[in-house]
């Protein structure tokens, strides 16, 4: 490619990527572009939570993924080797005889974002990859301020609404080839106000951070996590039958009870419902929230499935005041 062609191509690419108004669509477009380069066999993006020097403290969540995916990520070993060495930016390296390019955004974004490209590209394409990295890193940090919660780095309520719509649409379109269901889960820390009142707001924030970290470690990389607001979080658990969904939630519920938070022991109330493709997404949230309300009203520190609630309770509990 001549240098004029190169500049033209770079301008075209930046215009194309700057037009994307959400992290999801931008990342899809960037991965699609990398996959179109000669010599590339795969491009995947990850969110990295925790300490890259500690295998147990590290959580790697792949994005994007399809909802019917169930295998754990095959690049985990590679990431464990490459991450501690990366100082950010674009790095080419070999692993078990294969060529890779690691694009590592460490600046101004939380969680750290990685794109892993498998393959070897020409030197002129590598210059374009580096250019796209620069645009992507800047755009991600801009889009994050709109789509993520500052404190925990989790996607926020607005992003949850978009994602839930996508999940429902996915199940609606897959009626002929159904996979295991998804579950809408609302999780709320019990007596959080007391933590703030006793230890102060900063301690409260610290508890929220630890709680969010536990969520990231306990749920699978195929599930979606959000901070809905305050001390309320949402998980969309994918590809799980009713028994598995219950087990996943019990495991998290127990993990919270076992954990030593900065303020001492903490408990969580959980309400959940199955994602039924014919129920409007907002109503799904409301059902999970009613189940949560039921848990709060019946002593807290418990898990309630909306489908198991008595139909009378489902309708009438709204009027009860919680203290
Ligand atoms: N530290 C901190 N506190 C917050 C944040 N967002 C909301 N809160 C506080 O969270 C508390 C929530 O209190 P409530 O809604 O009464 O809930 P609760 O005390 O957990 O009681 P139950 O949910 O009924 O168990 C309020 O005091 C809010 O001010 C935040 O980002 N940081």
TrEMBL record:
Domain of life according to the entry: Bacteria
SUPFAM superfamilies in the cross-refs: Nucleotide cyclase
The protein's enzyme class: transferase
EC number(s) reported in the record: 2.7.7.65
Catalytic activity: 2 GTP = 3',3'-c-di-GMP + 2 diphosphate
Gene Ontology BP, a term: cell adhesion involved in single-species biofilm formation
GO CC annotation: plasma membrane
SMART domains: GGDEF (SM00267)
Annotated InterPro entries: Diguanylate_Cyclase (IPR050469), GGDEF_dom (IPR000160), Nucleotide_cyclase (IPR029787), Rev_trsase/Diguanyl_cyclase (IPR043128)
Required cofactor names: Mg(2+)
Listed Gene3D superfamilies: 3.30.70.270
Domain GGDEF: 180-308
Entry GO MF terms: diguanylate cyclase activity
Name of the protein in its database record: diguanylate cyclase
Species of origin: Neptuniibacter caesariensis
């Amino acid at each position: 490619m001549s240098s004029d062609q190169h500049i033209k191509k770079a301008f075209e690419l930046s215009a194309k990527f700057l037009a994307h108004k959400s992290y999801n669509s931008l990342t899809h477009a960037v991965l699609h572009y990398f996959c179109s380069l000669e010599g590339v066999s795969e491009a995947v993006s990850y969110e990295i939570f925790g300490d890259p020097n500690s295998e147990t403290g590290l959580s790697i969540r792949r994005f994007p993924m399809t909802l019917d995916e169930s295998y754990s990520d095959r690049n985990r070993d590679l990431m464990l080797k490459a991450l501690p060495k990366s100082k950010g930016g674009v790095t080419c390296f070999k692993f078990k005889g294969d060529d890779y390019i690691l694009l590592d955004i460490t600046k101004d974004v939380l969680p750290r974002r990685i794109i892993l490209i498998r393959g070897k590209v020409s030197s002129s394409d590598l210059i374009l990859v580096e250019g796209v990295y620069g645009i992507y890193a800047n755009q991600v940090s801009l889009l994050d301020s709109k789509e993520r919660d500052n404190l925990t780095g989790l996607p926020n309520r607005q992003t949850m609404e978009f994602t839930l719509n996508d999940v429902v649409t996915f199940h609606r379109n897959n009626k002929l080839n159904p996979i295991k269901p998804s579950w809408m889960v609302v999780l709320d820390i019990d007596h959080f106000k007391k933590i703030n009142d006793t230890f102060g707001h900063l301690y409260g924030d610290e508890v929220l951070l630890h709680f969010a970290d536990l969520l990231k470690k306990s749920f699978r990389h195929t599930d979606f996590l959000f901070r809905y607001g305050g001390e309320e979080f949402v998980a969309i658990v994918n590809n799980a039958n009713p028994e598995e969904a219950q087990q996943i939630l019990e495991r998290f519920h127990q993990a919270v009870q076992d954990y030593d938070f900065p303020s001492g022991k903490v408990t969580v109330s959980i309400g959940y419902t199955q994602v039924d493709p014919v129920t409007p997404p907002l109503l799904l949230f409301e059902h999970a929230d009613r189940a949560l309300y039921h848990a709060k009203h019946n002593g807290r520190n418990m898990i309630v499935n909306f489908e198991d609630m008595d139909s009378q309770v489902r309708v009438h509990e709204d009027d009860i005041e919680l203290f």
